[in-house]
């Protein structure tokens, strides 16, 4: 099917007037579009969906007026405007009148509702146009390359606020209780970046960053939660102006918290919209993780104002350019803001998640052909953001920070207000570095997968070779090659060797001055590849953990687990390896360790579970003893967060009765005096109390969810409802995913959590099978797609068959390769279970006694 628009008619300017009726959930609009007709046409094709077009009028350059008619094509989301006589080439003005619905699907021009403290219901109208939903707000040429200037006017009730991409230039009462709000012209930009928000919203006083006023908007009563976002927002805006060497492209910057929001946030130029958890936070009551999330998202969106908004990808296949870059820049900015957060180390967790998907047969290249709108939505995934961000970081480290930045400046300078492609970025980086960028980078971007670097001793040195890493055997994988910037570090007799090499088509022998005590490949941890050490080298390396950086230890754990999943290492050996880390102090390494034990928990039989719980306790109790339950004044933030993470692991996955008892006591203390418990520990306490709790705790948590004072508090109690273990309580939580008690922006993620839990997954899967149709109707499409990730936890051959049959019979379509990826991830886990169930059960029943180090 043809989804693309012809290029014979292109817009240069839209004047749009919209009048939403929040009560009736409808809107009426009129737009005049300045168009250039390149050759005579009798029809004009543009995008429109779920709109009724009532009149079509064309004023030609020579003053003639022609009436036309509109026919909507539902399947391709286009409107065909037909005219009785040919329209000559030239500059004309097209005027359309239309009406639409403020939908409840959190895309296009939609309706978000919330209840105030006394319980009265309020409505906000907001937009989410990326990727292809501007066409639900107004008829338009809804492709990123068809940039135009937007002059927007909103007619709204006088008591409501109206916000759009640029400053308000006039506000005039209409005389009937409404006002006409006219906004300044935008820069030349893509349709998906247009935004309007209307509702009872309050704004902070502006913080001036150079000439730019920065504000946060939220529903009444939440202004006290905006300080943190303003701080990182102002920092980011200033940081990026300096980094890019170019002023902010808008005339003001508003950041708006919308109670119903499908994604995390959206980079509309000058009017960034967020879900509340990503913008509003009580910084004294939030954990490190919760605050880091706000900082990340704010920095990410502001990075887009240049990279994405000012310079935009030509078509959706290039979305990685926008998102990978914003991800990279987000980390750079947050790392500059709070170096003590060690954000690049934490990024290892995201990089490993991307490797999890990119190790599948059903992966795709970062840049991938996109035709249907549905496939373009599926591009917003780990490969675009996290793999993309990782390979940019790898390139930056290879070129040096300054050279990389100079290339980026060149790229923005050359393409501002326009569109660009990957090759344009390579060209600019190549000009800045005088290096052949495509030769190194193209395989990382245009080919699926990533390499496994194999390290073996050879002579006095080592030999490096590569093949593609996949979890399931793949024909031809051994012959695939990348240009890999490898950094290796070795300890030899007289000190350390630290050496960058480029591993390409041929195996590489690296001579060392003396036989090494140990050698670490992917030193610094920035490479997007896995490493497999020959057994004697692995043994030496695990004996020298203290000499490795946290990110290197993280990668060691993450790579070992992947090799076990791929069948290249017995899982029992992997579990032995985890015992080496009982002295570990880094939070990210613990995230990898605990995550892997959670993975094992999903594939063992019921009667092995108590043994695994024992193993979990053995792994974490040393670190918990060291940290204690209460913070010390000299600790940094990451240590406090680690305490929370480990206590959670001990009390839930480890099912430790003593920890559960203690968590209950601490939680009781918190109820008496909220300042008595550290903000990093509280979320863990809630999770543990739920795991060990019953009906009384359930009732309390439900009430606290409903009466939450901050978005973070709401999330903690909501997800705790999925952590109870009694079937009757879990059934109550399941019902909330479809009965409207939980917002549709959260319900699919709650369901994913229920599917992932070993105590809830069976009930949850039955519930999904019985209710997927209402879910498909109620949930935002992007979140509905992510919900099904939960099926990867249904680890048994019977479930696997059932999942496949369900997807096939009901013709579930999730866009791109999403569904195939979930099915393959499930296959990998079931295959591991089939191969190692007996060995694992035996190991867990009687793990070897390892020396405590
Ligand atoms: Zn983004």
* CA(first)-CA(last) distance: 63 Å
User: What is the averaged pLDDT score?
Assistant: 96
Share of helical residues: 40-55%
Report the uncertain regions.
Answer: none
Query: Which structural category fits the helices and strands?
Result: alpha+beta
Cross-sheet strand order for the largest sheet: 3-6-5-4-7-2-1-10-13-12
In total, how many beta strands? 29
User: What is the count of DSSP helices, taking H or I runs of 4+ residues?
Assistant: 25
Q: Note the overall shape.
A: globular
User: What ligands can be seen in this structure?
Assistant: zinc ion
Name the beta content range. 15-25%
Main β-sheet description: 10 strands, mixed
Report the C-alpha radius of gyration, rounded: 28 Å
Notes on the protein architecture:
- The strands form seven sheets. The protein has a ten-stranded mixed sheet, with no helix packed on it. Strands 15, 16, 17, 18, 19 and 20 form a six-stranded mixed sheet that branches.
- β17, α1 (227-244) and β18 (253-258) form a beta-alpha-beta unit.
- The chain has 25 helices and 29 strands.
- α7 crosses α8 (422-433), α18 packs antiparallel against α19 and α21 (747-756) packs antiparallel against α22.
- It is globular, with a radius of gyration of 28 Å.
- It has 853 residues and is an alpha+beta fold.
- The protein binds zinc ion (ZN).
- Zinc ion binds at residues 267, 300, 304, 323, 326.
- Zinc ion is lined by residues 267, 300, 304, 323, 326.
């Amino acid at each position: 099917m043809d989804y693309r628009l012809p290029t014979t008619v292109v817009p240069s300017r839209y004047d749009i007037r919209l009048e939403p009726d929040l009560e009736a959930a409808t809107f009426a609009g009129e737009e005049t579009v300045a168009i250039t007709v390149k050759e005579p046409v009798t029809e004009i094709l543009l995008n429109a969906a779920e709109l009724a077009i009532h009149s079509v009028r064309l004023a030609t350059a020579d003053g003639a007026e022609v009436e036309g008619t509109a026919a909507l094509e539902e399947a391709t989301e286009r409107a065909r405007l037909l005219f009785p006589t040919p329209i000559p080439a030239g500059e004309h003005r097209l005027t359309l009148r239309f009406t639409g619905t403020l939908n409840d699907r959190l895309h296009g021009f939609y309706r978000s509702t919330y209840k105030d403290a006394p319980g009265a219901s309020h409505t906000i109208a907001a937009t989410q146009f990326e990727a292809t939903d501007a066409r639900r707000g107004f008829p338009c040429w809804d492709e990123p390359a068809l940039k135009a200037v937007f002059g927007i006017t909103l007619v709204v009730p006088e008591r409501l606020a109206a916000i759009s991409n640029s400053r308000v230039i006039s506000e005039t009462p209409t005389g009937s209780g409404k006002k006409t709000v006219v906004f300044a012209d935008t820069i030349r930009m893509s349709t998906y970046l247009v935004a309007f928000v209307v509702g009872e919203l309050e704004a902070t006083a502006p913080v001036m960053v150079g000439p730019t006023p920065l504000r946060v908007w939220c529903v009444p009563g939440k202004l006290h939660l905006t300080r943190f976002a303003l701080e990182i927002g102002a920092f980011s805006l200033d940081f990026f102006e300096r980094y890019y060497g170019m002023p902010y492209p808008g005339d003001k910057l508003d950041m708006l918290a919308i109670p119903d929001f499908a994604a995390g946030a959206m980079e509309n130029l000058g009017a960034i919209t967020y879900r509340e958890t990503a913008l509003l936070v009580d910084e004294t009551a939030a954990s490190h993780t919760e605050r880091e999330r706000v900082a990340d998202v704010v920095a990410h969106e502001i990075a887009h104002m240049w990279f994405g908004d000012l310079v935009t990808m030509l078509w959706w296949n290039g979305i990685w350019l926008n998102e990978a870059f914003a991800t990279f820049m987000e980390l750079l900015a947050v790392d500059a803001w709070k170096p003590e957060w060690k954000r690049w180390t934490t990024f290892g967790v995201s990089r490993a998640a991307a490797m999890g998907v990119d190790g599948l047969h059903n992966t795709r290249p970062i840049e991938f052909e996109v035709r249907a709108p549905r496939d373009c939505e599926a591009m917003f995934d780990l490969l675009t953001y996290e793999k993309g961000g990782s390979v940019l970081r790898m390139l930056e480290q290879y070129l040096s920070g300054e050279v990389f930045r100079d290339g980026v400046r060149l790229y923005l300078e050359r393409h501002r207000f326009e569109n660009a492609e990957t090759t344009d970025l390579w060209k600019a980086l190549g000009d800045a570095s005088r290096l052949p960028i495509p030769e190194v980078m193209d395989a990382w971007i245009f080919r699926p997968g990533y390499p496994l670097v194999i390290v073996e001793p050879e002579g006095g040195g080592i030999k490096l070779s590569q093949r593609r890493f996949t979890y399931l055997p793949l024909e031809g994988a051994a012959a695939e090659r990348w240009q890999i910037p490898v950094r290796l570090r070795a300890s030899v007799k007289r000190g350390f060797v630290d050496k960058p090499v480029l591993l390409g088509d041929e195996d590489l022998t690296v001579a060392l001055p003396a036989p090494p005590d140990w050698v670490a490949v992917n030193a610094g941890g920035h490479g997007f590849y896995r490493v497999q050490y020959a057994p004697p080298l692995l043994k030496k390396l695990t004996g020298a953990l203290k000499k490795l950086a946290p990110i290197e230890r993280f990668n060691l754990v993450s790579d070992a687990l992947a090799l076990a999943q791929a069948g290249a290492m017995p899982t029992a050996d992997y579990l032995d390896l985890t015992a080496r880390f009982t002295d570990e102090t880094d939070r990210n390494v613990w995230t990898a360790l605990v995550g892997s034990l959670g993975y094992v928990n999903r594939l063992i039989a019921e009667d092995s579970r108590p043994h695994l719980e024992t193993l979990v306790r053995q792994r974490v109790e040393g670190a918990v003893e060291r940290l204690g339950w209460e913070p010390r004044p000299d600790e940094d933030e990451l240590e406090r967060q680690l305490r929370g993470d480990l206590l959670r692991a001990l009390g839930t996955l480890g099912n430790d009765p003593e920890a559960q008892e203690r968590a209950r006591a601490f939680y009781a203390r918190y109820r008496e005096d909220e300042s008595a418990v550290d903000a990093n520990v509280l979320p863990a306490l809630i999770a543990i109390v739920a795991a060990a709790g019953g009906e009384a705790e359930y009732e309390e948590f439900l009430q606290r969810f409903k009466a939450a004072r901050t978005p973070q508090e709401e999330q903690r109690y909501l997800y705790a409802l999925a952590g109870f273990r009694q079937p009757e309580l879990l059934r109550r939580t399941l019902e909330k995913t479809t009965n409207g008690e939980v917002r549709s922006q959260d319900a699919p993620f709650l369901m994913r959590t229920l599917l992932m839990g070993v105590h809830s997954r069976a009930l949850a899967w039955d519930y999904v099978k019985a209710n997927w149709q209402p879910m498909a109707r109620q949930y935002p499409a992007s979140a509905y797609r992510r919900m099904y990730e939960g099926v990867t936890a249904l680890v048994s051959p019977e479930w696997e068959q059932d999942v496949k049959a369900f997807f096939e019979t009901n013709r579930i379509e999730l866009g791109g390769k999403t569904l195939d990826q979930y099915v393959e991830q499930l296959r990998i886990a079931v295959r591991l279970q089939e191969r190692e169930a007996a060995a694992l059960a035996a190991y867990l029943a009687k793990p070897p006694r390892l020396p405590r180090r």
